Amino acid sequence: MKKTSTKLLSVLAAGVIMASAFAGCGGNSSSTASGDNSSNAGSSNTSAFDTSKSLSVITREQGSGTRDAFVELTGVLVKDGDTKKDTTRTDAVTVNGTEAVITNVKGNDAAIGYISLGSLNDSVKALKVEDVDATAENVKSGEYKISRPFNIAYKGDLSGVAKDFVDYILSSDGQAVISKEGYVSVSENAAYAGTKPEGKITVAGSSSVSPVMEKLIEAYKQINTKAEIELQTSDSSAGMQSALEGTCDIGMASRELKDTETALTSTTIAKDGIAVIVNTNNTTENLTMDQVKAIYTGEAKVWSDITK
């Protein structure tokens, strides 16, 4: 009887130990799951977007070629005969340059802006427009509707380094640089076979064209080490004015030339999309052209106005 009792106690003790062990495992498993759920909840909270927030609309400065093209293509620019009126909402935050737009959108989850497609990075999110992704391929095919030309312009005839540099840009070598940087090439010319002259020129204008122009200058100077090219970044209107005044050899514009600039000779060097961007926390994925217009004219006040 004593042996049986001792054996029974040993079995019971072992059972208690095993139950405790299972309880411990269950506790750890529950804790881990709880931790995962907490983490997931946190992630969900981070990605959740409050559509009752007021739209924080970011636009470019007057004179920006990107703004000129954007308002015209989206219908924010109202035309009445020869009269044109930019109806961008009065409470829009106006900033100078592409990077300033990205910075503002990145730092505000209720913000929306627009930038050159070639300047897009992972710090912000590009929206589809009319169910079409903002990509170079869709710009080239014409499916993505918010696109514009990158133009260079000059007064009179080009010579020396200026002419040779333009020949390089339009050659297959220069167009390869443009494609590599995420823009759409426009020329099917042969490879560069220039004279590589010595000299200095100045290229000035659009902050949207400037990034790809910088890459073109770098590539050209590797071929023609005798050339010196100064790049001055401002906006399209300033670039065209500098070309007209002769204070730069080549002006840059991220739009078509205006009637007041027709004394210049213009050449399209690339095509570019204008990406409509939002904060990465914003759950919006697609807008129609009418919704983009409503946002920028002030018809839409809060995000729920366009996410219904």
UniProtKB/TrEMBL annotation:
It is a lipid-anchor. It comes from Ruminococcus intestinalis. It is found in: Cell membrane. The lineage of its organism: Bacteria, Bacillati, Bacillota, Clostridia, Eubacteriales. Transmembrane segments: none annotated. Keywords: Lipoprotein, Palmitate, Phosphate transport, Signal, Transport. This is Substrate-binding domain-containing protein. The complex is composed of two ATP-binding proteins (PstB), two transmembrane proteins (PstC and PstA) and a solute-binding protein (PstS). Residues 1-23 form the signal peptide. Part of the ABC transporter complex PstSACB involved in phosphate import. Residues 29-49 are annotated as: Disordered.
